[in-house]
Amino acid sequence: MVLWGQVLGALLVILVGYLCLPGLLRRRKPQEPPLDKGSMPWLGHAIAFRKNMFEFLKGMRAKHGDIFTVQLGGQYFTFVMDPLSFGPIIKDTQRTLDFVQYAQELVRKVFGYQPTEGDHQMVHSASSKHLMGDGLEDLNKVMLNSLSLIMLGPKGWSLDASFWHEDGLFQFCYNTLFKAGYLSLFGYTKNVAQDLLQAEELFMKFRRFDLLFPRFVYSLLSPREWLEVGQLQRLFHKTLSVEHNLEKDGVSGWLCYMLQFLREQGVAPAMQAKFNFMMLWASQGNTGPTSFWALLFLLKHPEALQAVRKEATEVLGEARLEATQFFTFKLSALQHTPVLNSVMEETLRLAASPTLLRAIQKDYILKMANGQEYLLRQGDKVALFPYLSVHMDPDIHPKPTTFKYDRFLNPNGSRKMHFYKEGKKIHHYNMPWGSGVSICPGRFFALSEIKLFILIMITYFDLELMDSDTPVPPMDPQRWGFGTLQPRHDVRFRYRLKCME
Ligand code: HEM
Ligand SMILES: *[C@@H]1O[C@H](CO)[C@@H](O)[C@H](O)[C@H]1NC(C)=O
């Protein structure tokens, strides 16, 4: 008995030593960025980081300046905070920084998907073909029909739609965009009413997964939540299975292209379902929340709403529905909305907070814009967090926390693309989609669908906040670094269809 205790104790010491030793022994070498290991062995700064990444990085920047290395859960991350120095990392001309390998680890854990060779390239080819250019025009039509179906019901508008409806704005936007986006990309069956019910049910499961997601990624779930995530994953795999796919018509060209590639690679059906789950997540996790922020900012800024409405009337004419009609819409109008485009850029500046991560494959010299050179160590990760270092930089964007709907417009009404830091023109002045090899391949479709939704909301509907004095809710700090932020609580609003009596 006593002996066992000693053996276990010794094992524990060895284990802890093994985990902590690299951290304890690590010293800053000449030419390396400032190193901050934190006070906890192995964990380093993980607790503060997970609690509030934005505040943590702000503190580190104040302490160490524009580049520093921190320990987080046994791994070392070098954060580069000077956007004038992003170029070499994003372009990676020396080919020493790797995105794919790190992303694959995450994908395995979160979606159960085991990537195959060439996946990353394939997703980007499929997206260039079907989520941009001509392919996007087709998808926009499908999206318009889906939005009609969801917002008006399968038979076109009924009298019911012309009464006031009250809802949470976040809930409403996320629910609508999710269902429309899901059905447009993953297809319909012959029974549309059934499809709508199924999409509604899937959204509820999706939201549950979404709420657990940040702590799941950080391995902070309670045992019960852990079980729940497992159940949700299995449910998604089943709902998005290959057999169910076969029953569907009108699966998007985007998904068909990708699934065909996987079949040709000999990827098993069960693994294809996991791939579908990953794509559901990538395509639906950010658009709903982004639409929420855009509509909320418009409702809180009457001058912005008025400008967008004016532009909408110019490109679309007056919109009024007759009984049993669907939305009609000149989709080409989406190309002629500089004011709404600026609203979207501004919304994403304020609400999208991605982290860009690259694994350092061999020791690497990073030359900063000020000429200073730093040695980045093989095996570490290099990380960018543009929300803090770009979006909220008052030099690039004066009064950075204020919503200015025309921030991205020139005085003559064209798109503004010239921004400066320290008097130098800056290329990366807004980075909601990431950048370089990992840039979001769905960004053009995302913008189209959100713009379509907003144009429908402001032309076909009356809408207002229940309490016009209600402040913009604070961001949920758990979601820093995970794409579009979510509000800490919802905001009540009401809407009703404008229609011909
Ligand atoms: C406002 C909405 C959206 C935002 C803010 C957004 C943002 C992002 C960001 C920041 C990444 C890069 C992640 C990284 O570097 O690891 C990403 C990746 C991705 N996004 Fe989006 N996204 C949006 C909508 C969409 C839509 C609608 C689709 C597809 C229909 C989509 C498909 C993807 C895919 C497939 C990837 C992974 C690409 C890869 O592996 O390189 N996204 N997105
Ligand atoms: C509008 O103004 C910007 C700079 O303010 C300029 O670069 C652009 O060429 C102008 N466009 C037109 C159509 O006049």
TrEMBL record:
Q: Where are the transmembrane segments?
A: 6-25
Molecular functions per Gene Ontology:
heme binding; iron ion binding; sterol 12-alpha-hydroxylase activity
Q: Where in the cell is it found?
A: Endoplasmic reticulum membrane
Please report the record's description of how this protein sits within the membrane.
Single-pass membrane protein
Keywords recorded for this protein, A-Z: Endoplasmic reticulum, Heme, Iron, Lipid biosynthesis, Lipid metabolism, Membrane, Metal-binding, Transmembrane, Transmembrane helix
Q: Which InterPro entries match?
A: Cyt_P450, Cyt_P450_CYP7A1-type, Cyt_P450_E_grp-IV, Cyt_P450_sf, Cytochrome_CYP8B1
- Top-level taxon of origin: Eukaryota
Annotated residues that bind substrate are located at 109, 286, 381
Q: Where does heme bind?
A: 440
Q: What is its main location?
A: endoplasmic reticulum
Gene Ontology biological process: lipid metabolic process
Record family assignment: Belongs to the cytochrome P450 family.
User: What is the name of this protein?
Assistant: Cytochrome P450 family 8 subfamily B member 1
Gene name linked to the record: CYP8B1
